[in-house]
């Protein structure tokens, strides 16, 4: 059968995202086919489109989606046609109307969570879970610095860190995003386009520094982030939207006994049990009101190029979602 999808035939800007027909077959042993209802957009999708991360051409981008099971392959148990499931990080290829995935990667979506919310929080939420409970375990009394505090992961990071009892410092680019970051649990918000965030963090912490920095910006903030850490602090780099950070000699960490980490969600959700536990933590946070999902931008799937352009230009905040079928406008 043929479905419509976004494909990348060459590395480049948003314009290389083309809307075309692709062939999709029946699920094989241990696989299911999903009719996507909502697709999450993540900055990592841009990394693949621009060649920062490698994927053989041509490819369908996307690492997060929620949909309804439309077919079940031989040997699959516990999943039926009509079930609502999500999938995140792997396999690549969610920018499509339908996709086939291994059944072991399907995550049941609670009935209380709608398709768009689930597609907005699954990958970002599990990433946040890894950041605050695995890569560095935030405890009450910690002081944390979150860059891009109004972004998809940043927003959830601020909320979860606040709920765990941390003092949260967030950096953003505009006053509008500063308001959102404060609403999401930032006790101190720094507009880095107007202020030196290193100097501001020093002032806020009385020059003690922070226990951990969560940095998804990369090159533009990395060096300053290291300066913000207290002795025995932890630098968690989980993205590089401004480019790869310059290399850091290991010996540079010794002056303050710092720890540097670059965690990837897939290594913390490698088994079925780990995957379902991480997703369960996220959905429990949503149900308890600890995590408020901000779906601030929704585009038709065929306008993925516009979504990418807006995300790269930092015109977005919160989550960005693509819909294969947009709801009809109110008359």
Automatic annotation (TrEMBL):
GO cellular component terms, A-Z: cytosol
UniProt keyword terms in alphabetical order: NADP, Oxidoreductase
Keyword DNA damage in annotation: no
CDD domains named among the record's database cross-references: QOR2
Natural source organism: Oryza sativa subsp. japonica
One MF annotation (Gene Ontology) recorded for this entry: quinone reductase (NADPH) activity
Keyword Oxidoreductase: yes
Protein name: Probable quinone oxidoreductase
InterPro entries documented for this protein: ADH-like_C (IPR013149), ADH-like_N (IPR013154), ER (IPR020843), GroES-like_sf (IPR011032), NAD(P)-bd_dom_sf (IPR036291), QOR-like (IPR047618)
